[in-house]
């Protein structure tokens, strides 16, 4: 999901830490993470249809699946002459795929070699993987070659897969016998067990459908951690966790999974006390070392605060408070005497994300997000009665807010603009609003001005679009918020989405942060948040 960045900054700046910042707490945190590891629910899924995938200029990524016959027709089909078939399971599923092979007539006198290609969307199984030049490992692509030495036999692929479509190709077999492929099955898995409450009958069909697909997106990502994507990267990222936890609060309400993720992140933090942005869970939990992402580290605090508010679990929040408190030192390290964040230095020493948008200038967003994180962290401290431990925060975020208004706010246009780059971006306005630097009235003016301003840097993913919807709500632009949510996530629905995607640009179906669109995640955690909006802000969306 994310680029791997390694910063030599950490090798020098924190060499003074000869001992672990958290002492002996890590082992206890890891034990608690294991204690809250959920049981997976296994459901047997069968394919529905044999389909053909054909070029179609009007379809998403210019390919469309069209039904040929029920899937059962495959089971009596002599496969040696057919050579290829595409199966549709009718829904997005995550789990372990199995199939059976039997001979028809003569006994097998040699092995079979079959190739399976799995796709979350139709174009994925139609794509040519041979000339892959993407920036992520080629191995993430879901194609597997299987040699069947004996028939009859049932084979389960060892790799967990995430898909709707399966293309089966015959690569080699003896001309002396034919065979059937039959009993295709996927043992789908998720840790989502609770049944979310239904929506009222008067909810519009589009909002109802967005909610349903959002729930399915969240469910597929709920494994033994909140994964970012069940196809890729299959791991825990703090930014995704924060948005998943919001959706979970208003749907499945499986708080032990949130608790497990928080403890894992704490246990796998760097010895200097700062959080790695991501944890790889298997075969044993480990951090993706060197992966330090500025806003993700601080979103841990916000996620912990929201968890505490939702559950009242003071014990967990108190135990993890030292981790949250330590992340605040990131901001303290980079804030200048004038109240502005040292954006240039921060960018050299941390990965600053905010969105998959290469030309996005992030100076204003960094300032706004830092203020937002400080305020949310102070709320956490208040919940825990720890205000005295962070007594500097109110003065700090007040000073930073004043600096933001003084240096970034253009009263004439009503927009927030950076010093080092005059780019007009949605991200800048969003984080000035969510931080409270902009009043609701100023926020409405800024967001409205974006519609008539040329060359605005727009959100590139559902991740930043989530914060855009939240900023609209915070500015009491409720009608606009509903329209934006319906247009954006409804746009994915209109293009055939079973689950919501990692990246979505209504004008470019082939956009990819990895230079190869089939490796995009078409079931992605940070896209699930319509569930949160629809179910929390009922007066807006229901």
Give a summary of the structure in a few sentences.
The protein has helices at 9-13, 25-35, 79-82, 122-126, 205-221, 238-249, 255-267, 294-311, 314-334, 343-349, 363-384, 393-408, 426-434, 440-450, 462-474, 478-494, 530-536, 538-541, and strands spanning 41-45, 49-55, 63-70, 84-104, 112-119, 143-148, 153-156, 161-172, 178-190, 236-237, 278-280, 286-287, 409-410, 415-416.
Strand and helix layout:
Elements: H1 9-13, H2 25-35, E1 41-45, E2 49-55, E3 63-70, H3 79-82, E4 84-104, E5 112-119, H4 122-126, E6 143-148, E7 153-156, E8 161-172, E9 178-190, H5 205-221, E10 236-237, H6 238-249, H7 255-267, E11 278-280, E12 286-287, H8 294-311, H9 314-334, H10 343-349, H11 363-384, H12 393-408, E13 409-410, E14 415-416, H13 426-434, H14 440-450, H15 462-474, H16 478-494, H17 530-536, H18 538-541
Antiparallel strand pairs: 1-9, 2-3, 2-4, 4-7, 4-8, 4-9, 5-6, 5-8, 10-11, 11-12, 13-14
For the structure shown, list the relevant keywords.
single chain, 542 residues, alpha+beta, Glycosyltransferase, Jelly Rolls, 9-stranded antiparallel β-sheet, globular
What does this structure look like?
By secondary structure, the protein is α+β, with helices and mostly antiparallel strands. The chain has helices spanning 9-13, 25-35, 79-82, 122-126, 205-221, 238-249, 255-267, 294-311, 314-334, 343-349, 363-384, 393-408, 426-434, 440-450, 462-474, 478-494, 530-536, 538-541, and strands at 41-45, 49-55, 63-70, 84-104, 112-119, 143-148, 153-156, 161-172, 178-190, 236-237, 278-280, 286-287, 409-410, 415-416. The two termini are 33 Å apart.
């Amino acid at each position: 999901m994310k680029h791997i960045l390694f910063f030599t900054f950490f090798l020098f700046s924190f060499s003074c830490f000869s001992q672990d910042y958290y002492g002996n707490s890590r082992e206890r945190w890891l034990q608690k993470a294991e204690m809250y590891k959920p049981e997976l629910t296994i459901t047997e899924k069968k394919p529905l249809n044999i389909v053909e995938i054909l070029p179609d200029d009007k379809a998403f990524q210019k390919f469309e699946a069209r039904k040929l016959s029920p899937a059962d027709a495959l089971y009596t089909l002599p496969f040696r002459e057919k050579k290829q078939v595409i199966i549709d399971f009718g829904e997005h599923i995550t789990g372990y795929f199995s199939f059976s092979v039997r001979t028809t007539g003569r006994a097998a006198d040699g092995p079979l070699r079959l190739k399976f290609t799995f796709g979350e969307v139709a174009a994925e199984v139609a794509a040519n993987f041979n000339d892959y030049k993407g920036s992520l490992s080629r191995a993430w692509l879901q194609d597997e070659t299987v040699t069947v030495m004996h028939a009859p036999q049932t084979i389960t692929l060892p790799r967990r897969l995430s898909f709707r479509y399966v293309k089966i190709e015959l690569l080699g077999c003896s001309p002396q016998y034919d065979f059937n492929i039959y009993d295709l099955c996927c043992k789908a898995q998720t840790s989502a067990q609770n049944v979310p409450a239904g929506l009222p009958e008067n909810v519009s069909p589009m909002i109802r459908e967005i909610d349903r697909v959002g729930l399915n997106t969240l469910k597929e990502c709920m494994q033994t951690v909140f994964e970012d994507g069940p196809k890729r990267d299959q791991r825990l990222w703090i930014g995704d966790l924060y948005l998943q936890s919001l959706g979970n609060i208003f749907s499945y309400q499986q708080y032990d999974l949130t608790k497990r993720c928080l403890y894992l992140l704490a246990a796998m933090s760097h010895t200097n006390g700062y959080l790695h942005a991501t944890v790889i869970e298997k075969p044993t939990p480990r951090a993706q070392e060197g992966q330090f992402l500025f806003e993700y580290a601080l979103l841990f605090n916000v996620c912990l605060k929201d968890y505490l508010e939702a559950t009242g679990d003071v014990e967990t929040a108190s135990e993890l408070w030292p981790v949250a408190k330590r992340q605040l030192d990131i901001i303290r390290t980079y804030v200048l005497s004038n109240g502005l964040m040292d954006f240039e230095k921060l960018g050299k020493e941390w990965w600053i994300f905010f969105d998959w948008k290469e030309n996005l200038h992030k100076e204003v967003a960094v300032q706004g997000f830092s203020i937002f994180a400080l305020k949310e962290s102070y709320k956490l401290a208040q919940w825990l009665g720890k205000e005295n431990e962070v007594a500097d925060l109110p003065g700090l975020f007040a000073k930073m807010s004043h600096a933001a208004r003084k240096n970034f706010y253009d009263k004439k246009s009503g927009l927030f603009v950076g010093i080092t780059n005059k780019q007009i971006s949605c991200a800048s306005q969003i984080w000035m609003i969510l931080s409270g630097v902009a009043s609701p009235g100023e926020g409405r003016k800024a967001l409205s001005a974006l519609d008539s301003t040329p060359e605005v840097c727009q959100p590139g993913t559902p991740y930043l679009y989530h914060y855009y919807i939240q900023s609209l709500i915070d500015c009491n632009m409720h009608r606009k918020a509903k329209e934006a949510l319906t247009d954006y996530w409804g746009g994915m629905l209109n293009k055939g989405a079973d689950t919501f995607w990692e990246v979505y640009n209504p004008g470019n179906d082939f956009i990819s942060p990895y230079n190869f669109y089939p490796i995009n995640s078409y079931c992605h955690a940070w896209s699930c948040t319509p569930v949160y909006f629809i179910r929390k802000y009922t007066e807006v969306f229901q």
